[in-house]
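Why does residue order matter? Because the sequence determines the fold. Keep that principle in mind as you read this record.
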Amino acid sequence: MMRRGFTLIELLVTIVVFAILGMALARLMVGNSRFVGRQEAQLEARQTARAAMNVVVTELRMVSDGGLLGASADSVRVRVPYAFGVLCRSGYALLAPPDSAAYAAAAPSGIAYQQTGGTYAFNGSVTVTGTTASTTECDTDSLRLVPGGRRITLSSTSVAPAGTIFYLFQNVTYKFATSAALPGRRALWRNTSAGNEELLAPFASSARFAFLVGARLTVQTTVPTPLSLVRGLELRLTGESEDAPAGASAPTQFPLSPRVKFMNQLPL
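Structure:
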């Protein structure tokens, strides 16, 4: 008994069918791979923007009247309080319980003390010279250290009258500039008297600072004059992925624009 084989036409049809199925499967796999790549790039860009927001907002929220020292589209320089307290006599002071990590990492730039009317005067020549003030130095002023607080010694013995509220501050500059970790890309930097630190990268060229002006916190892209009109900042943190995902010609971007109102300011 003879077995009937495949004809040439049947063989060609089979090959064509398998080729179509193979191409469809390959396109499906490529499409899924590109989708996953785009999702990963989006997540990477979003993490960069959100991490920058978490770092910057914490400090900028603390800025008080007169605390914005300089500003441009790419950078802002601010006085950031990191410890609050009450002055005693003879250059001693009591601090309310500070954040231990922020206190230890701070690069002190001076002291600000409250005047009549609630405004603050700034003195950049007064610094903390010690943290072992005698327990009796403030007791004569009827001031007591609260649990978790600190006794400190200041470099000046006549800053302001005993009982005056003050805070220690450091000057901090946030700036968008060329990244050192990713050459050719844009990074967010933080600068203090202790040094320059690259916080996060990369960011899009559109990343910048905008300004919240007046009691209604109107967004303004140009630097207001005078700076005392600025009541907060809009942080245009457009994060990017490090690489362009497969099938894309540029890195993925994630725009994030949180608004930060300076909390330690007097009402207009």
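The chain has two domains: 38-75+171-261, 80-170.
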